[in-house]
C-alpha cells in the first residue's frame, strides 16, 4: 500500500510538469535539479569574504604574483620564491582571479568547482551502481559530511587534490565494476598524475588496487592485463613530467640558486623527507582515529555501529562494490598514520570512498530507530552548545566577552539563531527522523556560515581594513616594511611593501629593516607586532600608531624616525619587493 501511495504522489506531481515525461526523463529532471541545487548551496557566500589565514592568503598572493609578473612556472610569495608546493593550484586560482577580475570572487573558485566535481563523480558512480534514488541520497550524504562541506568553502589545495583522487578512484571503480573500458583506466592514471602535481599524495587511488586484485582472483570484477599497468604508470609519469622536467631543467641549468633550492625542496624534502621525517604537525599514530574522524566524518560516523554489521554481510557475499573503497580507506588511514606529521585535512580524500562504501546502506540506515535517536541527541548537543554560548555571551559573561574581544568577533546572535533552529526541526520531524534533522540542520549551518558568518568574521580574519588605515596614516607614496610578515598583510597592502626573507631569522630581518628605513625615514615605515617592538630598546615608542588586534596579534605602525637609534645592517638579510604592491 505504501508503494502504491508513493507512486500516486509521483504521478500527481508529474501532471504539473511542462512536458510529458517518461520515467527516464523524470529521473533526469530530478538529477539536474539536484545538481543545480547542490551547486547553489556550495556557491553561497562567494565574494563575501577575503582570503583568511593560514593558507588562503598565501595561495592568493602566489596567484596574483603570477598574473602580475607572468612567472607561472615557479610560484613566488612577496617577490621571494615559494618552495613548498607545485604551481597547479596557484594556476587554477590565478585563472579564477583573472576571469572574475577580483580576488574576492576568484580565489575560492578552484575549491568550489573541485567540490562540485567531486560531488558529481560520487553521485554518478553511485547512480550507475545502485540507481538514481541511492545516488541522490549519497550526494546529500556527501554534502552534509562536515569535513567535505568545510573544505568546499576553504581555498586550500586539499579540495582540488580530492577531486583528482576521486577522479582516479572513479575511473578504477568504473572500469572494474561497470564497463571495463580502457578510457577509464587511463583517465585514472592521468588524474593521479595531475593530483601529484597538485599535492604529492595524488597517487592515493592506488590504494584500491590490492582489494581489486583480491576480488579479481575470486572472479568478481574486471581486471586489466598487466601490460595495462605499465601503460597506466607511463601515463602517470608523462603527466607529472609535463611540469617536473621543464622545471628541473630550468633550475639545473639556470644561474639562480633559489630555483635549484626550489627543485630540491619540491622533489625531495616535500615528498619522502616530509613523510618519513616530518618537522611539524607532529601527532601520535592514533591521531586520525581519536582526534579527526569523530568530527570530520559526521554524521556518517554515527552510523558505524550499524554499518559494521552491514559490511560484514557484504564481505561474506564478496561484494567488491563495498569492499574495494572500504579497503582503500583503511590503507590510506594506515599510510598517513605511519608518518609522524599529520594534519586533519590529509584524510579528506577518504570521504568520497566512504560515501561509496556506505551508499547502498543509506535507505536502511534512515529506518534505524537507534541511529535516528543518536543523531537527534548529537544535534541537540551541538546546537545546544551554540545556543547556550550565544545566550551567555549576549548576557555579558566575562570569559566569553574576553574571547570575543580577543578575536574581534561578536557571534552571539548568529550562534543563538543557528542553535535554536534545531528546536522547530525536532518538533516538526520528531526525534525518530534524527538523521534527516541532522542533515537539514547541517546544510542550514553551512548556508549561515557562508553568509552571516563570513560577514561577521571577515574584518577579524582579514587585515583589509587595517591596511587601508595604514595607508591613511602613511600616505599613498610611503613604503612599508614587514619583518616576520604574514601573507595576508602583503595581499591587502595598499602601498609598496618590502620583506626580508620568509625564513630569515627575525633578528637579522630587523637589522635589515632598520638599515632600509633609515635611508629615507620620512617616506618609509615599519609594521610590526607590538611584542616585537617592545623588546627593542632602541625604538622610540612614543611615535607608534597603535593599530589594535588583528589575527590575534597586537600591531604597531612606526615611522622611520622612530628607528634613528637602531643599528642597521644592509647585509644581514635579503630585500624583496612585493610585485603586487607596486
From TrEMBL:
GO terms for biological process: lipopolysaccharide biosynthetic process; response to iron(III) ion. It holds the Pfam family PMT_2. Its main location: membrane. GO terms for cellular component: plasma membrane. One of its GO terms (molecular function) is pentosyltransferase activity. Residues 84-243 form the Glycosyltransferase RgtA/B/C/D-like domain. Keywords: Cell membrane, Glycosyltransferase, Membrane, Transferase, Transmembrane, Transmembrane helix. It is found in: Cell membrane. It is a multi-pass membrane protein. The chain crosses the membrane at residues 88-109, 129-150, 183-213, 233-253, 285-308, 320-338, 344-366, 373-392, 412-429, 436-457. It comes from the Bacteria. This is Glycosyltransferase family 39 protein.
Amino acid at each position: 500500500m505504501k508503494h502504491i501511495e508513493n507512486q500516486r504522489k509521483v504521478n500527481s506531481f508529474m501532471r504539473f510538469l511542462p512536458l510529458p515525461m517518461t520515467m527516464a526523463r523524470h529521473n533526469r529532471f530530478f538529477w539536474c535539479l539536484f545538481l543545480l541545487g547542490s551547486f547553489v548551496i556550495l556557491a553561497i557566500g562567494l565574494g563575501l569574504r577575503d582570503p583568511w589565514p593560514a593558507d588562503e592568503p598565501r595561495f592568493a598572493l602566489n596567484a596574483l604574483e603570477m598574473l602580475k609578473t607572468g612567472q607561472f612556472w615557479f610560484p613566488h610569495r612577496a617577490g621571494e620564491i615559494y618552495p613548498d608546493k607545485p604551481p597547479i593550484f596557484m594556476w587554477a586560482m590565478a585563472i579564477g582571479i583573472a576571469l572574475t577580475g577580483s580576488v574576492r570572487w576568484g580565489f575560492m573558485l578552484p575549491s568550489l568547482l573541485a567540490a562540485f566535481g567531486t560531488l558529481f563523480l560520487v553521485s554518478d558512480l553511485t547512480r550507475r551502481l545502485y540507481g538514481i534514488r541511492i545516488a541522490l541520497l549519497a550526494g546529500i550524504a556527501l554534502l552534509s559530511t562536515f569535513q567535505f562541506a568545510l573544505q568546499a568553502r576553504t581555498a586550500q589545495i586539499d579540495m582540488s587534490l580530492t577531486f583528482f583522487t576521486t577522479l582516479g578512484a572513479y575511473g578504477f571503480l568504473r572500469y572494474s565494476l561497470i564497463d571495463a573500458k580502457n578510457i577509464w583506466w587511463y583517465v585514472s592514471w592521468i588524474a593521479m598524475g595531475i593530483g601529484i602535481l597538485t599535492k604529492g599524495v595524488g597517487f592515493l587511488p592506488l590504494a584500491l588496487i590490492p582489494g581489486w586484485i583480491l576480488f579479481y582472483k575470486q572472479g568478481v570484477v574486471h581486471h586489466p592485463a598487466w601490460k595495462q599497468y605499465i601503460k597506466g604508470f607511463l601515463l602517470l609519469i608523462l603527466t607529472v613530467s609535463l611540469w617536473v622536467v621543464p622545471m628541473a631543467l630550468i633550475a639545473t641549468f639556470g644561474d639562480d640558486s633559489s630555483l635549484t633550492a626550489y627543485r630540491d625542496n619540491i622533489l625531495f624534502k616535500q615528498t619522502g623527507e616530509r613523510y618519513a621525517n616530518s618537522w611539524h604537525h607532529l601527532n601520535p599514530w592514533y591521531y586520525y582515529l581519536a582526534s579527526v574522524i569523530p568530527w570530520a566524518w559526521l554524521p556518517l560516523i554515527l552510523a558505524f555501529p550499524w554499518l559494521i554489521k552491514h559490511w560484514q554481510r557484504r564481505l561474506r557475499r564478496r561484494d567488491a562494490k563495498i569492499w574495494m573503497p572500504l579497503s582503500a580507506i583503511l590503507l590510506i588511514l594506515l599510510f598517513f598514520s605511519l608518518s609522524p606529521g599529520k594534519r586533519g585535512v590529509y584524510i579528506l580524500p577518504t570521504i568520497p570512498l566512504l560515501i561509496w562504501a556506505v551508499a547502498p546502506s543509506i535507505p536502511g540506515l534512515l529506518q534505524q530507530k537507534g541511529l535516528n535517536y543518536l543523531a537527534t541527541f548529537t544535534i541537540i548537543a551541538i546546537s545546544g552548545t551554540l545556543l547556550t554560548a550565544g545566550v551567555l555571551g549576549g548576557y555579558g559573561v566575562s570569559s566569553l566577552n574576553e574571547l570575543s574581544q580577543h578575536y574581534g568577533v561578536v557571534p552571539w546572535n548568529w550562534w543563538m539563531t543557528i542553535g535554536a533552529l534545531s528546536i522547530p526541526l525536532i518538533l516538526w520531524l520528531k526525534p525518530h527522523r534524527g538523521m534527516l534533522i541532522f542533515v537539514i540542520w547541517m546544510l542550514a549551518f553551512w548556508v549561515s556560515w557562508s553568509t552571516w558568518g563570513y560577514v561577521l568574521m571577515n574584518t577579524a580574519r582579514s587585515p583589509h581594513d587595517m591596511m587601508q588605515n595604514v595607508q591613511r596614516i602613511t600616505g599613498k607614496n610611503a613604503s612599508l616594511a614587514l619583518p616576520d610578515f604574514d601573507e595576508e598583510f602583503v595581499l591587502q597592502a595598499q602601498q609598496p611593501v618590502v620583506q626580508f626573507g620568509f625564513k630569515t631569522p627575525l633578528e637579522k630581518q630587523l637589522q635589515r629593516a632598520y638599515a632600509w628605513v633609515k635611508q629615507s625615514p620620512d617616506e618609509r615605515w615599519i609594521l610590526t607586532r607590538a611584542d616585537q617592538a617592545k623588546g627593542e630598546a632602541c625604538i622610540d615608542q612614543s611615535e607608534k600608531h597603535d593599530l589594535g588586534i588583528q589575527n590575534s596579534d597586537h600591531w604597531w605602525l612606526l615611522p622611520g624616525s622612530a628607528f634613528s637609534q637602531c643599528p642597521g645592517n644592509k647585509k644581514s638579510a635579503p630585500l624583496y619587493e612585493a610585485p603586487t604592491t607596486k
